TrEMBL record:
<protein>
    <submittedName>
        <fullName>ABC transporter ATP-binding protein</fullName>
    </submittedName>
</protein>
<keyword id="KW-0067">ATP-binding</keyword>
<dbReference type="InterPro" id="IPR017871">
    <property type="entry name" value="ABC_transporter-like_CS"/>
</dbReference>
<keyword id="KW-0547">Nucleotide-binding</keyword>
<dbReference type="InterPro" id="IPR003593">
    <property type="entry name" value="AAA+_ATPase"/>
</dbReference>
<comment type="similarity">
    <text>Belongs to the ABC transporter superfamily.</text>
</comment>
<dbReference type="InterPro" id="IPR027417">
    <property type="entry name" value="P-loop_NTPase"/>
</dbReference>
<keyword id="KW-0029">Amino-acid transport</keyword>
<keyword id="KW-0813">Transport</keyword>
<dbReference type="InterPro" id="IPR003439">
    <property type="entry name" value="ABC_transporter-like_ATP-bd"/>
</dbReference>
<feature type="domain" description="ABC transporter">
    <location>
        <begin position="5"/>
        <end position="237"/>
    </location>
</feature>
<dbReference type="GO" id="GO:0005524">
    <property type="term" value="F:ATP binding"/>
</dbReference>
<dbReference type="InterPro" id="IPR052156">
    <property type="entry name" value="BCAA_Transport_ATP-bd_LivF"/>
</dbReference>
<dbReference type="Pfam" id="PF00005">
    <property type="entry name" value="ABC_tran"/>
</dbReference>
Length: 238
């Protein structure tokens, strides 16, 4: 498998706060990669930096072999990398269909937009049923589906999911992980930040463990599931 995303010495800072302190990792085409670690360990900052939502302080990011380190988010989606952000950031006063349309902002061909809508509605029939409703009227689980659906509208090669199961009922959480596997079956490569470690490692091929802005472990999902470093990372240690 070739490397789809390759990150070298990535650092992210917020003023004096060093959120990410020089990390290296890669994601190969076709993989599901879990990004794990306690709250505040630097996972979201990493994803946000990859898609240009926060600046890269130092280091480089290559996507499909191209240096995209300082690219703006609006260039990355058409290039094939999108983020479904933490906290289901949907536009509550826009309809479901309009929210999805925003994810395909770079697509001007009407038939291509229609095909993208159809694909998302096929994955999430409830979004089709509710396509004319304000997104703010959806349940939490449906808003999460909408956030993922919006990220899928540009047909990403690499989809970054930031805590897709956060705040969802256990029954719905199972559906999120089924979706992740289904998307991989459709040729999407995925990186998933998850607090739901056991389930994430069940679907993932590999994982990386963050602690205090650094990577403290990496390996196959099966090895990480047994790892003491993973356990201590959640207790706040390194
Ligand atoms: P969480 O699951 O809580 O989102 P995380 O592993 O994704 O955790 P980050 O959100 O990346 O971690 O946070 C890493 C560090 O950066 C933390 O110390 C956090 O307080 C800080 N941080 C994150 N976003 C900002 C911001 N916009 N401004 C200042 N500090 C921030």
């Amino acid at each position: 498998m070739t490397s789809l995303l390759s990150v070298q010495s990535l650092a992210v800072r917020y003023g004096p706060i060093e959120a990410v302190r020089g990390i290296d990792f890669e994601i190969k085409e076709g993989e599901i990669v879990a990004l794990l670690g306690a709250n505040g360990a630097g996972k979201s900052s990493t994803l946000n930096a990859l898609v240009g939502l926060v600046p890269v302080a130092s280091g480089t990011v290559h996507f499909k072999g191209e240096d995209i380190t300082d690219w703006a988010p609006e260039l990355l989606a058409p290039a094939g990398m999108t983020l479904s952000p933490e906290g289901r950031r949907v536009f509550g006063t826009l309809s479901v269909a309009e929210n999805l349309r925003m994810g395909a902002f770079a697509i001007t061909d009407k038939a291509a937009v229609k095909a993208a809508w159809d694909r998302v509605y096929d994955l999430f029939p409830i979004l089709h049923e509710r396509r004319d409703q304000f997104a703010g009227t959806l349940s939490g689980g449906q808003q999460q589906m909408l956030a993922v659906g919006r990220a899928l509208m540009s047909n990403p090669k690499l989809l970054l999911l930031d805590e897709p199961s956060l705040g969802l009922a256990p029954k719905i959480i199972g559906q999120v992980f089924e979706l992740i596997e289904r998307l991989r079956g459709q040729g999407v490569t995925l990186a998933v930040v998850e607090q739901n470690v056991a389930m994430a490692l069940e679907v993932a091929d590999r994982g990386y463990v963050f602690a205090n802005g650094r990577l403290v472990a990496a390996g196959s999902a099966a090895d990480l599931a047994q790892s003491d470093t993973l356990k201590s990372a959640y207790l706040g240690g390194e």
